[in-house]
Amino acid sequence: MKMGLVGYAGSGKSTVFEWLTGEKPDPAKVQQGQTAMADVPDERLATIAAIIKPKKTTYTKVAVLDTPGLMADERKDNARRLGILRESNGIVVVVDGFSRSDFAEQVRKFREELLFADLEIVGNRVTKLEAILKKRARPAKEIEIDEAEMALMKRIVATLESGQPASTLGLPAEEEKILRSFQLLTLKPEIVFVNRGDSGFNDPLPADLLALASTAIQAPVKLEMELAALGDEDRLVFMADLGIAKFKRGETIRSLFYGVGREVFFTVGEDECRTWSIPKGCEAVEAAGCIHKDLSEKFVRANVISYADYVACGYSEKEAKARGLNRTEGKTYIVKDADIMHILASS
Questions:
Q1: CA quadruple 174, 176, 177, 179: dihedral positive or negative?
Q2: SS3 call for 153
Q3: pTM above 0.85, yes or no
């Protein structure tokens, strides 16, 4: 899974990239974008590992893509810069919260950029379809498919021109499939992140921002990085003085991960305890494929313990089985977040 960081130049976006991934931005990769990985922390798995003491503990990762900063007065080039985001699964809008207070206005302006960028893509497709549809000496089925796509594209154009994202159309699966290759930005999940300075980070986010982005989050990114570089004793003193109970990096990564519709399931054992990334609503057979393709193709059943049951049984699979809480599930079982699963496959 890949999350794309985007924001106007000066928003501290690349500092957020370093904070999340621990990798310094490379000036040579500014124009094409830079990707680095970040573990998705999970206190539930950490607790399990502390009890089981496996040889290895592995957390699922999220790829973070840093993109070129947008220019305030250069909309045409901004569309090109935003194009780098099309390969991402979700968008993280970085808002300047250290030198500006107009958070909602920054988000509105950014969303206008997305509309403009998508309108350019869809408008170009409409022009091509118009030329294609003039060629009538083709099989009727091909013409029917192109006409259906044209109707869809015109609906999207009308929606974008009205100032609404394509996501407001609530497109059915068959229409989303038609659009998949275009990777429309206004169809992607969006999370707003306010990059705070060394003050105001404990204040509630303003109501006008939350009206636009109810899941918006904030953290004092540069301040946390500076504190992390201190020795343990000095860090604790400064954190107490500043009113910082804990760093928000891990919480932020989890918010990004879950904010784009992802969940995890666990595999636990003496060799390894691990989280596996799955889309919300994932079936057991699809989850099995996350571990290995063969497990999906040769799937027989899944032994499942819910996380709550696992905790209630003292983190013991043996006790869960004794209480009848280790269930057998088939291919179509919808995996729940933090399920403990063992996949059985045919040889």
A1: positive
A2: helix
A3: yes
Beta carbons of 159 and 166 less than 8 angstroms apart: yes
Helix, strand, or coil (residue 41): coil
Distance CA 20, CA 38 (A): 6
Structure tokens at 135: 């060629």
At residue 193 the predicted structure's pLDDT band, cuts being 50, 70 and 90, is very high
**Which residue reads 């009205």 in tokens?**
162
**How far is it, in rounded angstroms, from Cα 144 to Cα 25?**
48
Cα separation, 292 vs 294, in Å, equals 5
> pLDDT by residue (tens digit) across 238-264?
999 999 999 999 999 999 999 999 999
| Domain annotation for the chain: domains and CATH numbers | 281-345 (3.10.20.30)
HSE at residue 119, side-chain half, CA atoms within 13 A, is: 17
Question: CB under 8 Å to 225, separation ≥6 — which residues?
Answer: 15, 18, 19
Q: Supply 88's token pair.
A: 């991402």
Query: Which tokens hold the place of 231?
Result: 């020795």
Largest CA distance in the chain: 78
